[in-house]
Design a protein that fits this description.
By secondary structure, the protein is mostly beta strands. Helix content is 14%, strand content 38%. The protein starts with a strand and ends in a 19-residue tail after the last strand. Residues 75-85 have a biased composition (Acidic residues).
Length: 85
């Protein structure tokens, strides 16, 4: 299982790997300064995206766990072969 963070800025979602504490600090500093650009890194490779954060802008964070790429959970009872399928 991996932890993925979702940053929602003005209705747009950005998915980020852990840890995000440094990024949260940069966003907070930009807002406290009256506005500023912060680079949001990509979930996978690439340059990311620069977002202009300003006071009053709607920003929310959420965090969730995602499974492996096969879609199989850790619970062996979830395996379809256990049911003869």
């Amino acid at each position: 299982m991996a932890i993925v963070n979702r940053l929602t800025v003005d209705g747009r979602d950005y998915f980020l790997p852990d840890p995000v504490s440094e990024l949260k600090g940069k966003i907070l500093e930009a807002i406290k300064a009256g506005g500023g650009y912060v680079n949001i890194p990509p979930l996978r490779g690439g340059p990311g995206v620069d977002i202009l954060f300003s006071p009053g802008m709607p920003v929310t964070w959420s965090q969730f766990e995602v499974g492996d790429a096969t879609g199989q959970g850790d619970d062996p009872s979830d395996d379809a072969t256990d049911y003869g399928l």
